[in-house]
Design a protein that fits this description.
The protein is mainly alpha-helical. It contains eleven helices and four strands, in the order H-H-H-H-E-E-H-H-H-H-H-H-E-E-H. A two-stranded antiparallel ribbon has the order 1-2. Strands 3-4 form a two-stranded antiparallel ribbon. Helix 6 crosses helix 7. The longest helix is centred in the first third of the chain and has 14 residues. It starts with 17 loop residues before the first helix and ends in a 5-residue tail after the last helix. The mean pLDDT is 78.
Length: 317
């Protein structure tokens, strides 16, 4: 239960209609803005924005309240050009809703209030004053008329007559072993199936550098498999990944020196030594699924199939 106690003010009060205070489509900010404006003394020229500042109504709330008051007919605005060519915005605030025609008749009887500040000089064009001196071209137009003959930071270096020109990348001879290894890379892993054909020559040149440094094709394949993601992350640009993996050529592992007095034999194929594998590659396991080439994956428990094979293989009945 609620009780009300009311004392009529002896002075400085304004009468408002209950329909205005209890308007269903006006927010509390709109009602506060309207009642504040209607409580101002006669002849006050305080704008709605100034009233919102004094009533501590924010910018967004003021814009929303003003739009509601204009939609309901309590506020009307118009712009007109007053004496001296200056534009003035007239605002009409009413305690009852008014139509556009009714508000236009009331504003037509109101005098146009022009600020006391003098009109800006830019309203009337001034006489053109020519620039000093004769017209010239821009300083950045064209090229220098002659070579200054002095050393500058942008002068090209003179070619060395004794230096041998380096061959262009397209003219470097690439062995067939490198081309065959690059052609077989799509079968090495499912992540390398979409290598662009236009990058085969570039990748073959990078592989040839590895072969020239003493690396074998199995070493190159093992290095590529180490660089592939093992957590199921898809490879969107396999060509760029291979370029990154093959860009730096590490030194080839040195062969062990023979013991003194031991018979020398022709070099045989280097067996794969599991002790040479890194800890990352040693934790991988070969998938027992249907793959063209051996596919390695990192097992979580004791599974023998990679994630792709486990997802596509049907459960046993």
């Amino acid at each position: 239960m609620i009780y009300r106690h009311h004392i009529a003010p002896p002075r400085a009060f304004t009468q408002f209609s209950h329909d205005l205070i209890r308007h269903p489509r006006l927010s509390s900010d709109a009602v506060r803005l309207l009642t504040w404006q209607l409580s101002l003394p006669e002849g006050a020229r305080e704008s709605l924005s100034r009233t919102a500042e004094r009533a501590r109504i924010g910018a967004c709330a003021f814009t929303r309240a003003k739009r509601q008051l204009k939609e309901e007919g309590f506020v009307h605005e118009r712009r007109l050009q007053g004496p001296g060519g200056r534009w003035v915005t007239q605002q009409l605030v009413s305690n009852v809703p008014l139509s556009e025609a009714e508000a236009g008749k009331i504003l037509a009887r109101m005098p146009v209030h022009v600020p006391d500040a003098p009109a800006s000089r830019q309203l009337a064009p001034s006489a053109r004053v020519p620039a000093v001196g004769a017209p010239t071209r821009p300083p950045a137009d064209g090229h220098p008329e002659k070579d200054p003959g002095e050393n500058t930071s942008h002068r090209p270096a003179r070619p060395d007559p004794d230096a041998r020109p380096e061959p262009a990348p397209d003219t470097v001879e690439v062995p067939e072993t490198a081309r065959a290894l690059v052609a077989a890379l799509p079968h090495l892993s499912p992540d390398l199936r979409r290598i662009p054909r236009g990058m085969h020559d570039e990748l073959a040149r990078l592989v040839s550098r590895w072969l020239a440094a003493g690396h074998t094709p199995p070493d190159i394949r093992t290095h590529i498999l180490r660089g592939l993601p093992d957590d199921g992350t898809p490879v969107h640009r396999p060509g760029g990944l291979l370029r990154y993996l093959l860009r730096d050529v590490p030194p080839a592992p040195a062969a062990p020196a023979p013991a003194p007095g031991a018979a020398t034999s022709p070099p045989a194929a280097r067996p794969s030594d599991p002790t040479r594998l890194s800890s990352r590659l040693a934790a991988l396991r070969e998938c027992e699924g249907d793959h063209v080439q051996a596919t390695l994956f990192r097992p979580v428990a004791e599974e023998t199939l990679c994630r792709a094979c486990s997802r596509h293989r049907l459960p046993c009945p």
